[in-house]
Structure formats: structure tokens, C-alpha cells
Amino acid sequence: MKIKILPRVFSLMIAVMLAVLSAVLTWGTTQAYVFSANWSGNGATWKYGSSLPSSFQDGTSFGAYAWTSIGSSSWTYTYNSGSSNEVRYVNIDGGSGKLAETSYWVDGQGYITQFLIEYDNQENWYTGSSTPGGSQIDLRSIAAHEFGHTLGLWHTDTTCNGTSSDATMCPFYTGGSTWWRTPATDDIAGITDYYP
Ligand SMILES: [Zn+2]
After folding, report:
1. In CATH, what number is assigned to the domain containing residue 122?
2. Per the domain annotation, does 97 fall within a domain?
3. 147 C-alpha to center of ligand 1: Å?
4. pLDDT per residue over 86-120, tens digit each?
5. What pTM was computed for the model?
6. From the CA of 160, how far away is ligand 1's center (Å)?
7. Residue among 125, 143, 129, 152 nearest 180 (CA)
8. Total domains, the chain
């Protein structure tokens, strides 16, 4: 995840950096979701960028809806072709390495005002709704994870074992897996806390 922050809220950047450090130091222990910033309201719009293949639309929409359909939170994502928040398909760093990146911008109050999700177009993506091959990257899983970042959720401090109990906001994806598609208890606690 990459974060872009305006200079006048540098203090927030320090807070985010501390949150990252904390996540590293306590990784593997039972902690909780980690927040870096939040929207002032309880919803945002988004759209498919012009570089996004049509075959990536369903999986991307799935990722947004994963956070809209949580009963304990009022948060909603709404598709709007005029939105300034978009999802792109670009070469980030060639094959392997980063699968996707999310950037967001915050205002002087520290509220998120805009986001950008980018998928790496050099990866071996699986765009369907069934089960990906063992070496494939499940778009629905990655979309859910990246949209989680756009809410301000940082990588979780909860234990991540590479198993189906893992939170969507765990920091590492296992090829062929699909469990990030559905937010786990820890993810739900996070979104409910900030967008009740
Ligand atoms: Zn991430």
C-alpha cells in the first residue's frame, strides 16, 4: 500500500508510520484492526478507470460491495462514472512483487477525500468467481483488500496464518486463495468502529 498525503498534514503521516511500525513489531500476536485515516461521511463513489479491462469489472465491483454489505456498518460504495475515485490497470513493478497499490489523499482535517486503486497488469490474475489456480491471483480477494485500504484500514495486527480465518486486511496474499473475498471478524470490527 502506498499513501499520498498533503504536506500540511505531516503529523498524520507520522501517525501512519507509527502504525506501520507497530504492525511490524506486533505481527503474529493477537491485536486488532489498524486505522490510518477515515472519511468524514459514511460513503464514497468510485468508477472503473479507462485502463481497466472489462473482464476486471465484476471482480472490482465485488471488492467494493464486500464493504457495502456489512450489516453493522452504514458504509456504502456507489458506482458513479463521474467519480474522481478510480480503479486502474497498470504496470507497477513487473511480474511478482506488488499485486496492487492503493493511494489516498486527505484534507487539512485528516479526512480521506479521494483514492486510487491500481492493479499490476503483469500478474497472473484470475477474474472469475470460482476457484483460481494455485499460482493465480484472485481479483475478488485483492479488490476487497484494496477497497479496505480506501476506507482507511491499514494492515491488521491480528494473527495471519495464510489460512481461511485470515482477515481481508492481512498483509500477504497466498496464491490461489479466496478467503480475502469476505471480510473477517476483525475487518468487520474495524469498519463498524469508524463507520457505525
Ligand atoms: Zn495492503
Report:
1. 3.40.390.10
2. yes
3. 9
4. 999 999 999 888 899 999 899 999 899 999 999 99
5. 0.83
6. 13
7. 143
8. 1
